[in-house]
Amino acid sequence: MEDDRLELLGQVASWYYEDNLDQSVIAERIGKSRSMASRILQEAREVGLVEIKVTFPLKRDTELESFSLKHLTSGKPMFWLILLIIKTSSGSV
After folding, report:
1. Of 11, 29, 52, 85, which is least surrounded by CB within 10 A?
2. How many distinct structural domains can be found in the chain?
3. Residue 83 domain boundaries
């Protein structure tokens, strides 16, 4: 890949992912359409300049959800539910 193209991909990716610029603003800066800016971002991902990693530490606890729903409808004291909701992903309170 030519250095000029790599530079464009890197700059557009940086504006979008690091500076949080809209694709329309980026398109204006590079003198292209918004759809072209979108394709450039896709190309940056495809060539490995951008890696997207989703880190979502809060896993759904279906057992807890089921327990909470059962006890909400059974008339149990609400403070028990509050203690259970504080449970972290490591299982401690």
Report:
1. 52
2. 2
3. 55-93
